[in-house]
Amino acid sequence: MPRPRRRFTLALLLLATLALLVGGCARTPQQQYARYLQRGKKLLDGANPKRALLEFRNAVQLQPGEAEAYYWIAQAFLSEDNVRDAVVALRRATELNPGYPPAQLKLAELMIRSRDQELLKDAELRIQKILTDNPGDDDALFSLAAAEAQLGRPEQSEKYLNEAMKRSPANLRSKMALALLRVADKDMAGAEQILKGAIQQVPNSDDAVVALATLYAGMGRFPEAEPLFVKATQLNPDNTVAWMSLGSTQLKVGKKVLAEQSFKRAAESPKTTAPLAYVMFLIGQDRRAQAITQLEQMFQASPRNRVVRTALVAGYITGNREPEAETILNEALKKNPSDLEALLQRSQIYFRQRNFEVALADLDKALIVSPASPQAHYLRSKIFLVRGDQMRRIQDLYAALRTVPDSLPARFDLADSLLRSNRPKEALQTLNEATDEQKRTQGFAVAYNWALIGLGDGRAARKAVDTALAASKSPQLMLQDGLLKYAARDFAGARKSLEQVLHDKPEDGRALSLLVDTYAAQNQAHAATEKIRQMAREQPKSLPVQMLLARWLIRDNQKVEARKALAATVAANPKSTEPLLVSAGLDFNDGQFAGARSTLKNLIRLDGKSVDALLLSGQVEEAAGHYADAIVHYRKALTLDGGNVFALNNLAYLLARDSAHIDEALGLARRAREQVPESPEVLDTVGWLYYRKGLYDLAAKELEQALAKAEWPAIQFHLALTYNRLGNTVKGGRLLAAALSKDPKLADSAGLR
């Protein structure tokens, strides 16, 4: 009997061991959730947010009701400046657990950054709730102070910071923030006392020493700032900010050799947060070649360092070494097609090369990688500006500002685009959303004045321009002054202002044109001609001035003189395509197709990517009846600018001649209509293509809209044929007679294949 008992006991032992082994391998969902979070945090610390995001999302799948995973998802998005998706994740976290302070606090911080008054109030409520649950939360108190300051209640902000200091005397963050409030109130002595007190309290704090040194530097007290920055570097040799600030201070007092050593040290520290500090110093000293060499060495030593690679590529681009930049980017994108920085930089190269379609393709890929990328949206808006597609430009600029509301260039561009689209009220609203600090800049004043002028509010514009001129007589402001005086029929005053603009900026095209218009408005054509001739004699090599003369002569119907002026301009500016394009246009308008064709061939040899030249070539061949050649030119134009409405519309109309290409033509025409839905030319083309497909009801709808906007013979003719097909011969006959009475040649176009 003992033997079986031993065997039974052994079996139990084996089962128990197996159970332990199995139990050791199988983790509960909570354990797996924790492991995913741990992995994600490590990846985030290692600057790998994309992989971190995958781990955090795995955690969400296991525990979809846990707020913490969404909080870390938001942190991953924020590390890539994706504020929009971060806010979505944080809102989800706070919905799942309203009492989860980290998510509430981070969401409140983002709201504070927005500077939106409603969001600031929301942030204030969220933080106060955190403090109600946990009165000792210094981070929440600090954030509440920031919210109060943004809401225009600095005294409340100071109160909260003082409370934080009472509870935590060593809380340097609060002391420094309080010192900043003193600086904002221009109480430099008060700020100095606070920071000196912080150093006495924590004498080994390099951060406190740097704060006081920075205050002295900001006050221009460099001899006092320098030894403090030195002391900070001694306390913490890896304090990058201290080394860089020391270098800047040394530059201010003329110690360039020591400054160079400080910037080098800032870049070479093992824990540096500014590896490009020395490179930036070299650029600041106009030693660009050395800066590029330094970057090349850094890139060779660390080819996977994106910061270094991005800086090197930027250096190559600004130094007109685009092939080398493109080689690096192409290699990076072979390894990782989703490399956001590489896509953005390569799109810039293509934009500079005027390969707009390829640049747009890279930016579209970038927006797949990072849908909220403000850089991608902003760069794409530049392409739409070139194309004249203001609607899409506006969409991208709004998207850029949603992510980076403090971007002044994007805000100015959006206001400009809205003005070009005849939406001045929205332009003013866009500018009104700028920060108070931005509103104090001269650039803002100029942009705001243009918006007031666009709105037609002459009185407000006059007042705003006068206020701005009291501070500065910049060319832009003088141009606005000239425009307002021109509108008020003060032509002598306008000329005086415009001549001042031209004294500072001799080639300002708007000032030149407006100056000429002041004479034309008084029917002084001869005086205008003489003024332009005088400017042309004084600036024989100025392309804008010479082109103004040529265009004025064309406008004044002095075509022989205009051709002479254009020939002289071509001789003086052999690399410029503008005089060639105007010359070809002059020949085209005069029906001299051979001359236009010859000039355009020379132009395209100079610049094979000139969309304007290809479009005009298409028009020349179309007018000459060489439809196949015209189609080739329009197709080439679309390879360079796939959204060009003129090329889309004209190519579609020509392709309509052949029934085999009707569907392609209709697709092109619809693309054009998406951009300019009110254009009578495009509506006519779409309607005519529906007619050619036998869709007469649809054709009538498009052509009726076109005719309501422009009573052109071609539209009347097309609608007449459509009505006849629909059996409405009375209307059709009446329209047909009206069209043919204006243009009898339209009858020839009825003989289509």
| The named CATH superfamily of the domain at 651-753 | Tetratricopeptide repeat domain
What is the radius of gyration computed over CA atoms, rounded to a whole number of angstroms?
Answer: 34 Å
- Please outline the major beta sheet: none
Query: What is the CATH class designation of the domain at 651-753?
Result: Mainly Alpha
Mean pLDDT: 85
Q: Class by helix and strand content?
A: mainly alpha
CATH topology name of the domain at 651-753, in short, is Serine Threonine Protein Phosphatase 5, Tetratricopeptide repeat
Assign the CATH architecture of the domain at 651-753: Alpha Horseshoe
Distance between the termini: 107 Å
Please bin the fraction of helical residues: over 70%
What are the main properties of this structure?
globular, 753 residues, Serine Threonine Protein Phosphatase 5, Tetratricopeptide repeat, 78% helix, 0% strand, single chain, mainly alpha
What does this structure look like?
The chain is mostly helical. The chain has a domain at 651-753: Tetratricopeptide repeat domain (Serine Threonine Protein Phosphatase 5, Tetratricopeptide repeat), CATH 1.25.40.10. It has 44 helices and no strands. The chain is globular and about 95 Å long.
Compact description:
With 753 residues, the protein is mainly alpha-helical. Helix content is 78%, strand content 0%.
Write the layout of secondary structure elements.
Layout: H1 2-25, H2 29-45, H3 49-62, H4 67-78, H5 83-96, H6 101-114, H7 117-133, H8 138-150, H9 154-167, H10 172-184, H11 188-201, H12 206-218, H13 222-235, H14 240-252, H15 256-268, H16 277-284, H17 288-301, H18 306-318, H19 322-335, H20 340-352, H21 356-369, H22 374-387, H23 390-403, H24 408-420, H25 424-432, H26 436-439, H27 442-455, H28 458-471, H29 475-487, H30 491-504, H31 509-520, H32 525-538, H33 543-555, H34 559-572, H35 578-589, H36 593-606, H37 611-623, H38 627-640, H39 645-655, H40 662-675, H41 680-692, H42 696-709, H43 713-725, H44 729-742
Helix pairs in contact: 2-3, 2-4, 3-4, 4-5, 5-6, 6-7, 6-8, 7-8, 8-9, 9-10, 10-11, 11-12, 12-13, 12-14, 13-14, 14-15, 15-16, 16-17, 17-18, 18-19, 18-20, 19-20, 20-21, 20-22, 21-22, 22-23, 23-24, 24-25, 24-27, 25-27, 27-28, 27-29, 28-29, 29-30, 29-31, 30-31, 31-32, 32-33, 33-34, 34-35, ...
